[in-house]
Write a structure and sequence with these properties.
Layout: H1 10-15, H2 27-37, H3 55-68, H4 73-87
């Protein structure tokens, strides 16, 4: 998941955006416009990046985090094993 810390000027650029992919206003397009008007900074981190902006990425992220959570890990694994046994 991504997090943004943006200046209030981003709203001026969002107001100018056309409807884009998926019938949505694209934040990345507004950030590019903002970048043309002022400096925009990013932080490059090391670690796993999760794309929750589309359905499969969201599901993969949810499953991975569930399997890492000690509170539900074993129950969730049993659920997945049972589900896979039914399908295959």
């Amino acid at each position: 998941m991504w997090r943004y810390v943006l200046t209030p000027e981003i709203f001026e650029h969002l107001d100018k955006q056309e409807i884009g992919a998926g019938g949505e206003i694209q934040l990345t397009d507004a950030i590019q416009m903002l970048n043309e008007a002022q400096d925009v900074y990013a932080y490059d981190f090391e670690g796993e990046r999760y794309d929750v902006g589309e359905i499969l990425g969201f599901v993969k992220t949810t499953v991975e985090f569930a399997l890492k959570d000690e509170r539900i890990k074993e129950d969730f694994k049993a659920y997945l094993e049972g589900l896979l046994a039914e399908v295959y």
